[in-house]
Write a structure and sequence with these properties.
Strand content: over 45%
Distance between the termini: 26 Å
Helix content: under 10%
Oligomer: single chain
Largest sheet: 9 strands, antiparallel
Number of strands: 9
Number of helices: 1
């Protein structure tokens, strides 16, 4: 069953990827009007079917049956805690990411700073959404 995780009318770009841990960062940078970045981090990412920039997005967990028939993808998705995420843009385009989970943060990091990492968690102080369950404010 599909489940909505996060929705935003902001502009997002692929900002960083930590290959050793499969962390993918999509960021909507802060501007004069938007005082914080919005960082969407996918963890244990194994499949990415995505354009480099997205405007107005909805992120949801979708039924694994939507996955394309690739051996590596179906092998990853056979495990209970691995998921297929759909990103739908404001104009109806759909993209897919296979990952274990996704978390969304607001932060004030500079343009050249990343919220990805293993031992450091800079920029992850304020979580606003997650596929892991409810986020307490």
């Amino acid at each position: 069953m599909d489940r909505d995780i996060f929705k935003s009318g902001r502009y997002f770009k692929i900002s960083d990827f930590l290959t050793s841990h499969g962390q993918l960062l999509l960021r909507s940078n802060k501007t004069d009007e938007q005082k914080v970045n919005v960082d969407i981090i996918f963890f244990d990412t194994t499949y990415i079917q995505l354009t480099s920039s997205l405007y107005g997005i909805a992120v949801r967990v979708v039924d694994k049956k939507r996955a394309m028939d690739y051996n590596s993808l179906t092998s990853f998705l056979k495990y209970e805690h691995n998921h297929l995420f759909e990103i739908e843009t404001e104009n109806g385009e759909k993209y897919y990411i296979a990952a274990s989970f996704v978390r969304v943060f607001e932060n004030g990091l500079d343009f050249n700073e990343t919220s990805l990492g293993v031992l450091q968690y800079k920029g992850r102080e304020k979580e606003i959404a997650s596929s892991l369950g409810d986020v307490s404010e």
